[in-house]
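hey
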């Protein structure tokens, strides 16, 4: 088994001396990479990929966790990251200059620098409370301390939409949004410094299974009679979004007696247009050559296959990834063919 135990903070998944973030220019075999919090599926995936490409090709990877998705894509577009978590929703915001990028005049130009490698499910936005907190539905969040994602993140946008659609509540008016990064928020919830903690995580989730060891918890969902609310529809209408159901008894400490409806999101592994063609080809190939190793690291990665890799992708493929998919017979939609392809 090639996978080691998850580490915290900035992860250096290579032999030799640790690199200082932001001060080293990536060489031909050293990739600067970023993901969300340490328990995020994006970090589980990133660590797995980092170890695979180290084993197969000797590529070294400096992985920084706790990054914000809306910042990662801008850093990659400015050649400050080589590999990063790309999200379908964030791609759209940057391309169109909307939401958090409204004041960014060159947003479309930055988007044109981004290239895709593979898409995969981030998971559903679980709203978690301790079973003994007195919070049984989102209506009970009135006046509470609630973690809804880092400021200016795409996660915060969708969570605010869900809470508003279910309750009509507004952040800073009806409840107190706590400003932390993903990793700090997870610890704060475990220490009972938060009344509710919203986090995107797969079903099943190792993070939620670990919570069972600390106490019983409840997951807050979208009731049937709220599905057609404009805010809920808006949350689900963004490309890369769908709805998932969490069944009772999925986790040992889960107290829900009925299925829980949540908004889910699709993310992926991205790079920029300057990345080396052969190296990105090798990375793409390694991901699928080691599918069994990915599943061994986390069962939810069963969903990562060539047939699903382009699901809802809305940024062109990198030329190296494009060549790999063509080689194995995957039909690439015209919109995803990179400008660099000379077909």
């Amino acid at each position: 088994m090639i996978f080691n135990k998850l580490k915290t903070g900035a992860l250096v998944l290579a032999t030799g001396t640790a690199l200082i973030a932001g001060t080293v220019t990536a060489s031909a075999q050293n990739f600067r990479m970023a993901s969300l919090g340490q328990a995020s599926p994006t970090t589980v995936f990133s660590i797995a990929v980092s170890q695979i490409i180290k084993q197969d090709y000797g590529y070294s990877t400096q992985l920084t966790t706790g990054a914000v998705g809306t910042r990662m894509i801008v850093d990659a577009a400015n050649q400050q990251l080589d590999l990063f978590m790309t999200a379908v929703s964030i791609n759209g915001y940057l391309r169109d200059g909307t939401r958090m990028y409204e004041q960014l005049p060159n947003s479309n130009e930055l988007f044109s620098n981004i290239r895709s490698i593979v898409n995969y499910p981030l998971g559903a936005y679980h709203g978690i409370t301790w079973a003994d907190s007195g919070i049984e539905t989102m209506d009970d969040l009135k006046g509470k301390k609630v973690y809804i994602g880092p400021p200016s993140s795409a996660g915060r946008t969708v969570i605010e939409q869900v809470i508003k659609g279910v309750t009509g509540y507004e952040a800073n008016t009806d409840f107190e949004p706590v400003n932390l990064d993903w990793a700090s928020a997870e610890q704060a919830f475990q220490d009972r410094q938060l009344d509710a903690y919203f986090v995107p995580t797969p079903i099943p989730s190792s993070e939620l299974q670990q919570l069972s060891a600390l106490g019983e918890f409840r997951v807050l969902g979208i009731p049937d009679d709220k599905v057609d609310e404009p805010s809920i529809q808006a949350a689900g209408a963004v490309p890369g979004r769908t709805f998932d159901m969490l069944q009772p008894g999925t986790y040992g400490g889960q107290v829900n007696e009925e299925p829980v409806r949540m908004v889910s999101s699709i993310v992926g592994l991205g790079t920029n247009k300057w990345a080396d063609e052969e190296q990105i080809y090798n990375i793409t190939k390694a991901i699928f050559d080691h599918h069994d190793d990915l599943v061994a690291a986390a069962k939810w990665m069963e969903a990562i296959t060539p047939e699903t890799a382009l699901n809802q992708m809305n940024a062109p493929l990198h030329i190296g990834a494009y060549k790999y998919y063509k080689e194995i017979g995957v039909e690439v939609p015209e919109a995803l063919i990179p400008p660099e392809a000379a077909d």
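The first strand starts at residue 10 and ends at 13. Confidence is low (pLDDT under 50) at residues 1-28.
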